[in-house]
Design a protein that fits this description.
Blueprint lengths: L4 H9 L2 E4 L10 E11 L6 E12 L1 H10 L2 H8 L4 E11 L2 H14 L5 E7 L3 H19 L1 H6 L4
Parallel strand pairs: 2-5
Antiparallel strand pairs: 1-5, 2-3, 3-4
Helix pairs in contact: 2-3, 2-5
Amino acid sequence: MAMTRDDFDYAIENTHVIVAPEQQIATFGSTSFNFYLISELMDRVDQVRIRNGKIHGEKAERYADQLREHARKIAVLRYGFQFRKTDVSEQTLRDSIETVVNRTKRRVQSANEPLSAVIRGVDDAWEVCLLKFTIDLVEQSSGGNLGDFRKRGLL
């Protein structure tokens, strides 16, 4: 099933980061994060899916440049899928989404997982939610990474 622009926009608007990773994305080299993406199943009440996996952000400076040069949405659509997802597993729970979100948040915080993110998103378009999270992270990091560029004589 092809994703419409409305589906895409809906997923972007309904992506909520509950716990952000503490470490910013390294401008040079690569960084990987664990994610827990929690979504309600569209067609069933009180059925919640948790997807867990890793995001690998490689060469984040490429994203950062493109984000500065292009309108955000176009950058997301054209360049966004340069991150890799690995080790993705999922489970479906019978519970309310608030309960699952809070339980996952507590688990991540008490397990001291500084490279983990908990994201609430949309089930059908969960990859778009993951994409938005990754791009936002790169954008936030790129502000702090200008010093890296200067040190390497790239600015």
